[in-house]
Amino acid sequence: MNSELLNTIGIDPGYFIVGLIIAVMLMFLLIVISMVKLRKLNKKYNSFMKGKDAKSLEDIIIKKLEQIEKLVLSDKKNRKEIKLIKENLEISYQKLGIVKYDAFNEMGGKLSFALALLDKKHNGFLINAVHSRSGCYTYIKEIVEGKSYIVLAEEEKVALDKAINPQNYSE
Predict the structure, then answer these.
(1) Measured distance CA(94)–CA(47) in Å, rounded
(2) Taking the complete model, does pTM exceed 0.90, yes or no?
(3) Residues 116 and 149 in one domain
(4) Ordered strands of the 135-144 beta sheet
(5) Could you tell me which residues are beta bridge partners of residue 124?
(6) DSSP classification of residue 94
(7) How far apart are CA 140 and CA 120, in angstroms?
(8) Buried b vs exposed e over 95-128: b needs ≥16 C-beta within 10 Å?
(9) Residue 158 lies in domain
C-alpha cells in the first residue's frame, strides 16, 4: 500500500497503521476504565440520593446533623462524667493488703488480722484486730504516702507492703 501523503512526509504506511491500531487499543482501554469508574460513581450517587426528590435529601441531611449534635452533647456529658469518676477514683480506697495471723501462741485459727486500705497516693489507714481469749481489740493507724508515724508491727508492715506492692505477693 502506497500513499503519496505519507511518502511525502517520509513515514512508512505499515508503521503508521500499527501506530493507529495501538492508539485505538489505548483509547478502548481508557473508555473501559472510564466506564468502570462511572459505574462506581453512579452507585455512590444513587445511594446518596435515596428518596424521591431533593427535599427528602434535605430532610436526611437535617436528621444526620441533628444526630451529630446529639452525639457531640452526649460526648461532652460523658467526658465530664469520666473526669468526675477519675477524680473520685483518686481519693477512693483502691489498694488493699491483709495479713491473718495468730496473735498469741495458745490461740489457733489465725483469728487476728492486719488490714491496710490505701488510695492511689498511698494514703489511708491500717486496722489491726488482735483476737485473744478475753476479747478482740482493734487498733487503727493513719497511713500517709505509704508511711505511718506510729510504729508498725511486723504483720502491719506486711499488710501495708501488700497494699502498696500487690505484684510481689501471689496467693
Answers:
(1) 52
(2) no
(3) yes
(4) 95-101, 112-118, 124-132, 135-144, 147-148
(5) 118, 143
(6) -
(7) 20
(8) bebebebebeeeeeeebbbbbbbbeeebbbebbb
(9) 95-166
Of the given ranges (2-6, 51-55, 160-164), which has the lowest mean pLDDT?
Answer: 51-55
CA angle 91, 161, 82 (to 5 degrees): 25
Instruction: Say yes or no: 36 and 84 in one domain.
Output: no
Write down the mean pLDDT value for the chain: 88
148 found inside a domain: yes
**Regarding beta strands 112-118 and 124-132, do their DSSP bridges make them parallel or antiparallel, or are they unpaired?**
antiparallel
Mean of pLDDT values over 94-100: 92
Cell digits of residue 116:
491496710
- Both 99 and 162 in one domain: the answer is yes
Asked if residue 117 lies in contact with residue 124, where contact means CB atoms within 8 angstroms, the answer is yes
Q: Are residues 64 and 114 in the same domain?
A: no
For residues 9 and 98, the model is more confident at 98
Separation CA 156–CA 129 (nearest Å):
10
Check whether residue 78 and residue 25 sit in a common domain. Answer: no
Q: Is residue 18 part of a domain?
A: yes
Question: For 52, which DSSP code?
Answer: S
**For residues 65-83, average pLDDT:** 96
